[in-house]
Amino acid sequence: MSHKLIAFFVICLVAIVSSVELDIHINLDPTTNEVAIDYNNLLHKYAPNDQVFLGSKSIPHITLYLTDFVQEQIPLVQNGISQIFPLLNQAGKNCLVQMTTIDISAQYGMWLVQNNQCLQYLSDLVVNNTFQYITPNQTIPDWVYSLPEPLRDEKIAMIKKYGSPNVFDQFQPHVTLAWDEIDNLTIAFNQVDVQPTSFYSPSIGIGNTGPYGTVLDNYYGTFNFSNNNKNNNNKRRIK
Ligand SMILES: *[C@@H]1O[C@H](CO)[C@@H](O)[C@H](O)[C@H]1NC(C)=O
Ligand SMILES: *[C@@H]1O[C@H](CO)[C@@H](O)[C@H](O)[C@H]1NC(C)=O
Ligand SMILES: *[C@@H]1O[C@H](CO)[C@@H](O)[C@H](O)[C@H]1NC(C)=O
Ligand SMILES: *[C@@H]1O[C@H](CO)[C@@H](O)[C@H](O)[C@H]1NC(C)=O
Fold first, then answer.
1. Which residues, if any, are the signal sequence (predicted)?
2. What is the pLDDT of residues 48-94, one digit of tens each?
């Protein structure tokens, strides 16, 4: 092997081990978390090729910021979230999260969340205080190149600066319930008949990601909002 080739592999290896894709998200309250898992389980009956397995392989979540971070800088990401947590808590503990309808987009089946000021603020604040630790020069996905202008240029600029095409005015909160390239998700979701609901999130989590936009855990931290009364009241009302 030539020295150039060896150098190339070493660079690739360093690039692979030093970058970690993290998902910074809000978690669902216990009731809505169960509801999302139940919908996902039921969906598997009508869409047996769905590759999202909530509750067993991954966790329901609403992404605030998803990107690759430099591995050595993950402690700085965690510290960044801790530093701004008083602000995140203030906005998050009173933020009513309204789950609406299902949107089928390409292979994804997403339970849409009504965007509002507090969710937008949580995402903006998280991005502003952590993007300095992202992996530089992240790949622009092919689907971005097929978007119409001016959206294409806006998303490319976002990826270059923030490592994500879905921040600021492109933030579209949702809970992913399905990824399926075989079954007709429109027909399957009609059977599941997802109903609107709302909840107060208990926490912000930082977790590892799996395939198809899934989140595996809250491994890098769970930051609890100080809204336990609300969640308890909510649970009591439903029972
Ligand atoms: C995030 O940064 C942008 C650009 O610097 C700024 O306009 C915006 O007010 C910031 N938002 C928050 C919530 O920090
Ligand atoms: C990122 O890409 C730009 C333009 O291609 C280049 O100038 C810069 O050196 C790259 N930065 C890193 C850290 O690779
Ligand atoms: C899925 O089913 C719906 C309703 O029958 C139909 O309108 C749509 O074209 C189908 N989608 C695909 C990708 O076949
Ligand atoms: C956050 O809340 C969870 C669930 O209620 C609890 O298990 C955990 O101990 C809390 N963490 C902190 C740091 O308070």
1. 1-19
2. 999 999 999 999 999 999 999 999 999 999 999 999 999 999 999 99
Question: How far is residue 228's CA from residue 202's CA, in Å, rounded to a whole number?
Answer: 7
Helix (H, G, I), strand (E, B) or coil at 216: coil
Average pLDDT of the chain is 92
Distance CA 165, CA 151 (A): 10
Which of 11, 18, 69, 137 has most ligand 2 atoms within 8 Å of CB, for mutation? 137
Atom of ligand 2 nearest to the CA of 136: 13
Could you tell me the pTM of the whole model? 0.89
Residue 87's CB: how many other CB atoms inside 10 A? 13
Domain range list for the chain: 18-224
The three-point CA angle 159-215-44 to 5° equals 120
Calpha distance 199→238 (Å, rounded): 12
- Which residues in 153-162 are b (16+ Cβ under 10 Å) and which e? ebbeebbeeb
190 ligand 3 Cβ < 6 A: no
Cis peptide upstream of residue 30 (ω within 30 degrees of 0): no
Buried b (16+ CB within 10 A) or exposed e, 36-55: bbebbebbbebbeebbbebe
CATH architecture entry for 18-224: Alpha-Beta Complex (3.90)
CA of 219 to the centre of ligand 1 (A): 27
